[in-house]
Design a protein that fits this description.
There is one protein chain. The chain is of the alpha/beta class. The chain folds into two domains: 31-323, Thiamin diphosphate (ThDP)-binding fold, Pyr/PP domains (Rossmann fold, 3-Layer(aba) Sandwich); 327-354, no CATH class. It has helices at 31-56, 70-77, 103-110, 120-123, 135-148, 167-178, 226-241, 271-279, 282-292, 298-321, 340-353; strands at residues 85-87, 155-160, 183-189, 192-193, 196-197, 218-222, 247-252. Strands 1-2-3-7-6 form a five-stranded parallel sheet, with helices on both faces. A two-stranded antiparallel ribbon has the order 4-5. A hairpin with a 2-residue loop joins strand 4 and strand 5. The longest helix is centred in the N-terminal third of the chain and has 26 residues, at 31-56. The protein is globular and about 65 Å long. The structure holds thiamine diphosphate and magnesium ion.
């Protein structure tokens, strides 16, 4: 049984300040792996920034922005093997790109087109979960199942600070704990659930302290430090593969962009705090670390950015080249006997579409 204590107050860090003080070297990854991690960060950042533009141009629908969450996503995924399962929320919509999913697929999802719904088994990436926390029990069940079959696969579920107040989170966490399921509960604590601040969400001093209630370890990391996230997730993966059960990771940041393209946070957020967070955003922090270590230089950074931009250009072109979806799909497959209102809605839509 793992020793369970309240989570550390100090956030784990590997990347130091801009002057390099506090930089730490990691044992595991070599230069190539460190650059691969940078490539992933840039790909996610480019995906996110382009998506906001595509939304403003009317080319995708409402979009959940993940600007400055890239370090949590890339850091955690790089600690996994390809057989391991990822359960994303809407905030991690593009995480499949790190498993080779084409940008066109995720863009199609945000366009509401059926080709955006991939087969989870193709990438070991579950469907994007929009209801808060309902994927936590799914991830716990998958992880337990893998364990029962004697496989070494682990699963990771990403969710927000707000999700820790949901019943599904508690059920999933408890279930995973009592079955010693190889699960990583990864909490993106950006301190906001749309306009609800963390202070109105919980009386816990730290979200990671909730882990003690399930008898599992809770770890706190700086969510904008991709290497701290990577290191903490590697340790959680190791525990899970060793049969020691789940770990709760709280990655702390401050949401520096609107919740989604339909949100205007100026009405509720601390704008000064947003500016501070933007000044220490995660891609720039890691870029500084790599430059100080002599691993990254202008030309290489430029070519990595260009590759990501090209991938996005090709992605939106491919998504827009898809033939329009059949609108009847919206009405099918939910009911054996559709209610009369649904039938009349469909008749009306057909009339409008001519
Ligand atoms: C079960 C459920 N209740 C309410 C909502 C509406 N909703 C969408 S996003 C959101 C905030 C979630 O915040 P958090 O868990 O912190 O994740 P973040 O968006 O900050 O990544 C809410 C309440 C929902 N999607 N599902
Ligand atoms: Mg949140």
């Amino acid at each position: 049984m793992a020793q369970v204590v309240p989570a550390e107050r100090d956030l784990r860090r590997v990347i130091g300040d801009a002057d390099g003080s506090g930089d730490r070297a990691l044992d595991g990854p070599g230069e190539q792996e460190l650059l691969d991690l940078y490539r992933s960060l840039v790909l996610l950042r480019t995906y996110d920034e382009r998506s906001v533009v595509y939304h403003r141009q009317g080319r995708i629908g409402t979009y959940a922005i993940f600007w400055n969450h890239e370090a949590m996503q890339a850091g955690a995924v790089h600690a996994l093997e390809d057989d391991d399962w990822i359960f994303p929320s809407y905030r991690e919509s593009a995480i499949g790109l790190l498993r080779g999913m084409p940008p066109a697929t995720v863009l199609s999802w945000w366009r509401g087109h059926p080709v955006g719904w991939w087969n989870p088994a193709d990438y070991n990436v579950a469907s994007i979960c929009v209801p808060i926390a309902t994927h936590v029990p799914h991830a716990a069940g998958l992880a337990w199942g893998k364990k029962l079959r004697g496989e070494r696969t682990v699963a990771i579920a990403f969710f927000g600070d707000g999700a820790t107040s949901e019943g599904s989170f508690h059920e999933g966490a408890n279930f995973a704990a009592v079955t010693d399921a190889p699960l990583i509960l990864f909490c993106n604590n950006n301190q906001w659930a749309i306009s609800t601040p963390l202070s109105a969400q919980t009386r816990a001093a730290a979200l990671a302290d909730k882990a003690a209630g399930y008898g599992i370890p809770g770890v706190r990391v700086d969510g904008t430090d991709v290497l701290a996230v990577y290191e903490a997730t590697c340790e959680a993966v190791e525990r899970a593969r060793a049969g020691e059960g789940p770990t709760f990771i709280e990655a702390l940041s401050y949401r520096a962009a609107p919740h989604a393209t339909a949100d205007d946070p100026r009405a509720y957020i601390d704008l000064e705090r947003v500016e501070e967070e933007r000044a220490r955003e995660c891609v720039g922090r890691y870029e500084g670390y790599l430059r100080r270590a002599g691993i990254l230089h202008d030309e290489l950074a430029e070519s990595i950015r260009r590759d990501a931009t090209d991938a996005m250009r090709a992605g939106i072109a491919a998504a827009e080249a898809e033939p329009s979806a059949d609108p009847s799909l919206v009405f099918e497959h939910a009911y054996v006997d559709p209610p009369t209102t649904l039938r009349s809605d469909w008749e009306e839509l057909k009339r409008i579409l001519g």
